[in-house]
Amino acid sequence: MLYFWLSLAFVAGMMMPLQAGVNSTLALQSNGALWASLISFAVGTAALLGVVLAMRYDWPVAAQLKQAPWWAWTGGFMGALFVATGAFLAPRIGAATMIALLVAGQLIMSVILDHFGWATFPQHEINLGRILGVLCLLAGVVLIRMY
Predict the structure, then answer these.
(1) Consecutive sets of 10 residues in the chain, 147 residues long: mean pLDDT of each?
(2) At 4, which helix (H) or strand (E)?
(3) Is residue 28 part of a domain?
(4) pTM, two decimal places
(5) In-domain check, residue 3
(6) Cα 23 to chain center, whole Å?
(7) Residue of 22, 28, 65 whose CA lies nearest to 44
(8) What's the total number of domains in the chain?
(9) The domain containing residue 84 runs over which residues?
(10) From the centroid of its chain, how far is CA 35?
């Protein structure tokens, strides 16, 4: 089962540059990256609603949702920033540079989140291997951007 989850993460990662290109194309036809992002989120919301209804999930209970910390509600803002930024940047800096920088930012934040165990992540201390991994990825960003 572990290989399935690892493969799922890999395939989802492959969708990131494709999503940015698709949304960038939509931005050309819809008067900008913000409109394209809004349309993208509307389509995604409709798709998720369809899946939830088809799978007959129970609706969340308002009392339980009220117990969520304030920051648990900010994921949509972060997703909107990601989608809008991708749609805007893709035609300006290219897929490889954009994704390299996105992945570098993701990895640095992931190491910080793991170190402190924030936002429900299990705690994994920063160590030499993780620092070297981040530095190698940053070197990769430089190489991708230079060539």
Answers:
(1) 94 94 95 95 97 95 92 95 94 94 95 96 96 96 91
(2) helix 2-29
(3) yes
(4) 0.83
(5) no
(6) 14
(7) 22
(8) 1
(9) 15-146
(10) 19
Measure the CA–CA gap between 141 and 116, rounded to whole angstroms: 26
Please list, residue by residue across 96-108, b when 16 or more beta carbons sit within 10 angstroms of its beta carbon and e when fewer do: ebbbbbbbbeebe
What is the predicted pLDDT for the residue at 122? 95
- Residue in this structure with the two tokens 């399935």, named with its chain if needed: 4
**Is 7 inside any structural domain?**
no
In a domain, 72, yes or no: yes
Q: Round to whole Å and give the CA distance between 33 and 31.
A: 7
Residue (of 12, 43, 21) closest to 88 by Cα position: 21
* Chain centre to alpha carbon of residue 113: 15
pLDDT of residue 68: 94
DSSP line for 38-66? HHHHHHHHHHHHHHHHHHTPPPPPHHHHH
DSSP 73-142: G-HHHHHHHHHHHHHHHHHHH-HHHHHHHHHHHHHHHHHHHHHHT-TTPPP----HHHHHHHHHHHHHHH
